[in-house]
Amino acid sequence: MTNKSIEATQTKNHQNMILTPKKSDIIYIRRAHYHETDQMGIVHHSNFIKWFEEARIHLMKAIGTSYKIMEEEGVISPVVSMFCEYKTMVGFDDEVFIHIEIIDYNSIAFKVKYRVTNDDESISYAVGESKHCFLSKEMRIIALKKSHPHINEIFMAEFTKNS
After folding, report:
1. 38 catalytic, yes or no?
2. Which of 7, 12, 111, 117 is close enough to 104 for a disulfide, judged by CB 3.0 to 4.6 Å?
């Protein structure tokens, strides 16, 4: 049994979790809720986008910052684009593992990749990407390298680790 499997087994009773089994692999674990399903008991496709946002928020915490901290410091990070390719259905009460990584970063924008699987990764439910930019509270594009070097260092370290 791998470390990831052991940790996943230990967390089966938790509804929403984040695991960091190895430095380059951040995983957000989520159980499908009844209210997210349609009449057939299948999770509605729109919920994957919401799950991506939840996973992205946990990614930020795992790397050492958060949207809350960034917003308190005057940095806003809106979605510029979103992509999701659905592979197979998720049913009510299924547990999904959302693998998250920063795949592009340049101080002005970043891109996140998502893979939604079951615990042993034998089922791929969906894959996706989202792109985000950094804005000031005045809605002007900013470069973290100049405006918030400490946040830039956090993003750059995570991106470099994954490239």
Report:
1. yes
2. 111
Domain 3-162 has CATH 3.10.129.10: yes
Residue 100 CB burial class (10 angstroms; 0-12, 13-18, ≥19): buried
Catalytic residue among 38, 94, 119, 120: 38
Q: What share of the chain is helix, strand, coil (3-state, %, to 5)?
A: 35, 35, 30
| Mean pLDDT over the full length of the chain | 88
75 near 135, Cβ under 8 Å? yes
Domain residue ranges in the chain: 3-162
Please tell me the predicted confidence (pLDDT) of residue 162: 80
Which residues have CB under 8 Å from 34's CB, separation 6+? 92, 93
pTM of the model: 0.84
Q: What is the pLDDT of residue 6?
A: 34
Residue 112 pLDDT > 70, yes or no?
A: yes
Using H for helix, E for strand and C for coil, what is the string for 20-80? Answer: EEECCEEEEEEECCHHHECCCCEECCHHHHHHHHHHHHHHHHHHCCCHHHHHHCCEECCEE
Q: 106 Cβ partners below 8 Å, 6+ apart?
A: none
Predicted confidence at residue 19, as pLDDT, reads 46
Rounded Cα gap, residues 53 and 154, in angstroms: 19
